[in-house]
Amino acid sequence: MSGVEYSESELLDLAARRDHAAMKAIYDRYVEYLAAACARYVGDENDRKDVLQEAFIKIFTSLDKFEFRGEGSFKAWMVRIAVNEALRFLKRNMSNSFIEYDDKLPDVADEPEPEVDGIPDDVINELILSLPPGYRMVFNLYVFERKSHKEIAKLLGIGESSSASQFSRAKALLSKRIKEYKEKTAGNRRRTGADDSLGALLSAPR
Fold first, then answer.
1. 102-144 pLDDT tens trace
2. What Å distances lie between residue 187 and 59, 115, 182, CA to CA?
3. CA 140 to CA 117: how far, in whole Å?
4. I need a labelling partner for 2 at 20 to 30 A (CA). Which of 57, 119, 154, 188 fits?
5. For the stretch 193-206, what's the b/e string if a residue is b when 16 or more beta carbons lie within 10 angstroms of its beta carbon?
6. Which helix (H) or strand (E) holds 199?
7. What is the rounded CA–CA span in Å between residue 42 and residue 89?
8. How many helices (H) and strands (E) does the chain have?
9. How would you class 97 by CB atoms within 10 Å of its CB: exposed for 0-12, middle for 13-18, buried for 19 or more?
C-alpha cells in the first residue's frame, strides 16, 4: 500500500477482509491520535501502551460490527473504543472508592472555568493527568468526549449527582493548579529578568 493514500472507507473495507497492509496502515495513521486520547486518562506510559494495544485488538476484531457513516466516523469509533479501554483499565485498578474528596476544595457547582490562555498544551495535559483518577475520568468525559452527567453516570456506575460533584471538584482543583503554575512561571520570568538586567549591568563598558 506504499505511496497510496486510502480513504477511511477504503481502508475499512480492506481491513475487514483481513488485509494486513490495510490494518498496518490504519495503525500507522491513527496510533498517535489514539495514544493521545488514552493519555488523557492513563498517566503511566507502560500502562498506556497496554491500553492502546487492547484498544487496537478490539478495533481489529470488531470491524464487522462497525457501520460506516461518512468520513471521520471510523476515527470517532476508534476513539470511543480507546477511551472505553482506558476507563476499564482505571476502574479495574482504582482503590476502593470512586469518589475522592478533598476537604480543602469547595463543592461548588458554578466553579469558574480554568484560565488556560498562554499555557502550553503539554502542560495542560500534565495538569489534567495530575488530577485524582475519579476526577480525571469525569472531567475528560465531560469536556473532551462531550458526555452528559447522565451518560457519565451510566458509564462509570455512579450517581448523576456524583458525576456533577466530581466534575465541579475536578474543575476547582485544576483551576488551583493552573493558578499555581502561572504564579511559578511568573516568578521564574521575574527572576530571569532580574538576572539578565544584572548581567547587562556587569558587562556594560566602564
1. 444 444 445 566 677 778 888 988 999 999 888 999 999 999 9
2. 47, 18, 8
3. 19
4. 57
5. eeeeeeeeeeeeee
6. helix 160-203
7. 8
8. 8, 0
9. exposed
Q: Position of cell 488551583?
A: 176
**C-alpha cell recorded at residue 5:** 493514500
How long a stretch of residues is the chain?
206
Cell of 130: 495530575
86-111 pLDDT per residue, tens: 999 988 887 544 554 444 444 444 55
Relative orientation angle of helices 160-203 and 149-156, to the nearest 10 degrees = 100
pTM flag (> 0.90)? no
The rounded distance, in Å, linking the Cα atoms of 144 and 137 is 10
DSSP class of residue 63? G
Q: What is the distance of C-alpha 3 from the center of its chain?
A: 32
Look up residue 158 and give its DSSP letter.
Answer: S
